[in-house]
Design goal:
This protein has 13 helices and 13 strands. By secondary structure, the chain is α+β, with helices and mostly antiparallel strands. The strands form two sheets. It has an eight-stranded antiparallel beta sheet. Strands 1-6-11-8-9 form a five-stranded mixed beta sheet.
Length: 352
Amino acid sequence: MNIEESDLNFRKLHDLRLSNQLLLAMIFEFTTAPGFDFITFFGKQINAPVRDNFLEIPKTMGEGYVRKVRFGDDFKLTIHRYTLKEDLIVKRNPTPESGSVRTIFFYNHWEDLEVKYNREENIPFAHKGESAILLSTNDLRTEIRFPADSIIHYVVVAIGADRLRSILSSEKPNSTIKTIIGENASFLFFESLDPEMQLLLNNIVSVDMNNSLNNFYVQIKVQELMYLLFSKLSLRENTTFKNINSNDAEKLLVIRNEILSDLSSPPVLSELAMIASMSETKLKQLFKQTFGDSVYNYYQKARMEEAAFLLKQAKHSVSEVGYELGFSNLSHFSRLFEKQYGITPKKFSYTS
């Protein structure tokens, strides 16, 4: 089977799965444009009033709220915190051009959130409940599915490139930062949300906005959160940036899902390239650009993160985890785990 046939069959299968999924979910679709206000549009769609930039979720849908916090016309924060009775699918249609707005999506929860691009099957955005960050331009089509009966807890920062450039004030930015604050770039970047960032995020969503000074407090905390994010992005290797489109983004999410779907077997680059309908060279470049690491290193880190989850949350033994993740040599597993976490898996399983 050639690449074109594989891609066609792949899309037919996912279109069928998508049609089944849509029957069981609420769908909210929008297109960003100058002056677009998410909370107002969302309120109209669910027939809920917005008062003082605050929207309470109707009891018929679930419970919780959406809140918008403004730090100026080119710097806004939207906080989502709710539990819904049905799955919710939020579709963002692409704008004709990448524009000057940068969108940063911070997600922090122990249940899976799924995100996808174009018509792709739902892709786990938070593997094993991990927290994560997505940074993109608005010319990429995105679709996020929020599962019913789980606590949705995330914030979205929308900031103009000029404002971001002014905040960062970096004299020698690396290629990733240059791309983010530059003009006419289409990009998608993923990063992990470490414990310090998770704590900041929790502080932000817990603030009582009835206190007039707390808008100032939240702005400081959001900028601190962004500082930690861009500190991580600034450590990425300097490489030649390649613009990404919605189709590329879709395929990269597919590849990420393939890698995470079976952590007991190392990925085979030629097979992944076939799935993505890309050359191996293009796949390696775009994957590293988007996720900040090579395919194999990303797999190994995810493997160790899964091991940590199984040891701590699922209470599996070291030998159970090692064999489950495809290690025939437990000493090799222990060395890799200690290299990533600075502690042996046995000692890690005993820590609080």
